[in-house]
Design brief:
The chain contains seven helices and no strands. The protein has 132 residues and is mainly alpha-helical.
């Protein structure tokens, strides 16, 4: 059994171990948001808050699946044996993490997709092509 849930090499939920979502949203950013919003766990847990954030994000990606199946998809690529929490444990995890970290994460990540060098097609077309 690992000594730490949020660090150490034995830790199945160590930064970078949660799969594809960590490629898009780095664990360091999730940890910073959890610290900033005061949503970090205060005691050793088998399901840390960082995992809760990724779980809620995965729920959004697989909205047609139940929590148990989403959890299975989230941890499917992990080599180590991971806990298989009950639906109640997953519900409690979502509630413990709360809305604030996800809202803050959105605020940090949301922004325009276009770069300053992106050209506007509507601006380049003539008046007839713009619907005038």
């Amino acid at each position: 059994m690992p000594q730490s849930v949020t660090g150490g090499t034995d830790d199945v939920f160590a930064p970078g171990h949660i799969g594809e979502l960590t490629q898009v949203i780095p664990p360091e950013l999730v940890d910073a948001v959890l610290n900033e919003t005061g949503a970090r766990e205060r005691r050793l847990r088998s399901l840390p808050s960082r995992v809760g954030v990724y779980f809620v994000l995965a729920l959004g990606l697989y909205e047609h699946l139940g929590a148990g199946l989403v959890w299975s998809k989230l941890v499917a690529g992990l080599a180590a044996r991971v806990p298989q929490p009950s639906e109640k444990a997953l519900r409690d995890l979502r509630r413990r993490v709360g809305v604030a970290p996800l809202k803050r994460l959105f605020d940090v990540l949301a922004g325009p997709l276009a770069q300053p060098s992106t050209r506007c097609r509507a601006c380049e077309s003539g008046p007839a092509e713009r619907g005038r």
